[in-house]
Amino acid sequence: MRVVDEEGNPVAPGVLGNLEVGGESLMLGYWNRHQETRKAIFGDYMKTGDKYLVDAEGYFYFVGRTDDRFRVNGQWILPLEIEDVFLQYPGVHDVAVVPDADEQEDLAQVAAYIALKSDIAVTPALEQDLKKHAKRRLLHYKVPRRMFFVNAIERTATGKIDRKRLRIQAASKGENP
Predict the structure, then answer these.
(1) Exposure winner among 69, 72, 83, 127, fewest CB in 10 A?
(2) Nearest Cα residue to 21 out of 57, 79, 55, 60
């Protein structure tokens, strides 16, 4: 395993990079998906699509998926960081973060879909408290511009957040799922 920059060079400890894996058991390719195989496998390594940090002691830390990230104000947003902040709030059961386009300027902002614990009700006070919670822990451009409260966060067959579906919903003027 190694963490590399966009050009394939190893990154320094604490620098965000792309995880690559290699070894004798590396797959030959994706079944009937030649173009995707060519993008993923080169030499003895495969690009996983995962973003990682490695510390000075060699420990690896998952930060998110390459295809989940998006830009806000020219800065990369990794949804996992924002989701982690909301999951620390006592009444939040689950959360998913996706880009939310500004209708007037067509600029991406952050949208959060939040599923509360069953005994918690959505109130204006709760919404304000969640915003304050996020503002204390995140840089201003990472604080969600809009929050949508849902019964559950949709997941794929593999248990991952269905971000594709949420992106479509956010693009359709933020209608709740």
Answers:
(1) 127
(2) 60
Residue 25: its pLDDT value, please?
78
**What residue ranges in 36-170 does DSSP mark as E strands?**
41-42, 45-54, 60-65, 70-72, 75-77, 92-101, 108-116, 146-150
Digit-coded pLDDT (tens) for 85-97: 999 999 999 999 9
Q: How confident is the model at residue 71 (pLDDT cuts 50, 70, 90)?
A: confident
What's the per-residue H, E or C state across 6-59? Answer: CCCCECCCCCCEEEEEECCCCCCCCCCCHHHHHHHEECCEEEEEEEEEECCCCC
Q: How far apart are CA 136 and CA 141, in angstroms?
A: 12
CA distance 63 to 82: 11
Q: Are 159 and 166 in contact (CB under 8 A)?
A: no
For residue range 121-138, list pLDDT tens digits in order.
999 999 999 999 999 999
Rounded to whole angstroms, the Cα distance separating 20 from 92 reads 33
- Which domains are present in the chain? 2-66 (2.30.38.10), 69-171 (3.30.300.30)
Question: Rounded to whole angstroms, how far apart are CA atoms 39 and 99?
Answer: 25
